[in-house]
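Regression report. Comparing outputs from two consecutive submissions.

Submission 1:
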Amino acid sequence: MSETIHPRRTTTSAALERHFATLAEQRRHHLPELVRLAPSLAWRRPADGQWSAGEWLEHIWRTIRVQRILTQMYVPVASKFAALFRNRPYETDVPDLFEAQPDSIPGPLLPFLKPKHGPSNPLPLHILADRLEAEASILRATLDIDERTAGHIVYWDGPFGRLNVLQSIQVIGFHEANDFKHISEVLRTVAR
């Protein structure tokens, strides 16, 4: 369900807080279990051509890292233009396409989102988890902007289309939830 927000006078973003809280809760639920996995289990692939749990976690980290880099470059410039529209309504939420149409979302096509580590060159999962949390903290600090402005800074996302900054963080949450489901499926398969 999409919520339309009409202009208000505030410098904090309730929508960003809500979306970042969702990300934090998902990670609190999944990361402690993942970092305790034995490396042999964490990096075991369920089948040829399928990623291990470690590779999925690295993909999550790479995705948030790319979002953080793009945000640090784009938001300062785009916010100047978006500020002109801050008194207009904007959306804060977007439907979860991963849940609604799971087969319509393509896998990671961009090479920089694919994991560099694997069963032959594993990285301790606690390092990936720490990197993920660090990137998320930097991204959150980068997005310390007025919600009315953030609602008008737009990105293009292939499956989701036009998203504003608020919605893009929600989509990261959808993406991570989907990837954590993949990790759970991989672990069930390799633990047999």
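Submission 2:
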Amino acid sequence: MGRPESGKERLLKAALQEFSERGYKRTTLEDIAARADVSKGTLYNYFRSKEEIFDQACDYAFKCWDDWACERAEEAEDPLDKLRTLARELYAYLGEHPEIKRLLRREPDLFPVFGPLTYRHGGDLDTVKMLRSILASGIKQGSVRDMDIEGVIQILGAIFRLFVVGYADLDEPERRNLAEAALNIIVDGLKARGD
């Protein structure tokens, strides 16, 4: 049985729904309070402003997404299998949480194709830390080419963001097939080559 949801967590989920449906500019604190079934004053017990609730709701969403994918990828042992699992789970999570995908499409500055893969408050996403570990481990084992890890992470992040935001209008099977083909090309390109 999971842990009980806190009052703040309930507010963050309500905020996430509102921001994903209306966007930052059109969402009001009244909208969030109504969705959470609390008074506007209750929001001020937890947050100082709309901007703060937005930042925390985004970080909450990214943290849930991050935890989900990393937990599942941890089960794989081979670095390249771990990378495949991580990518697939990141993508699968969005299918189960359309509010996050809507938010990313509605607020493209949250997830620019090129830019840092960090939380709103700063700090690398756990998936970035895991990617570093996967690539370093693969290089050490000889299963991954010796290459600039930070550069690879930026490229992988840009490709992933392109699929999340850029291909949102494709039908799901077509988008999933395209993502799987891209993943195969990426993993093949990362593999170490024999002499």
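Expected: both submissions complete independently.
Actual: both completed, but the second showed a warning that disappeared on reload.
Relevant detail on submission 2: The chain has a mean pLDDT of 87.
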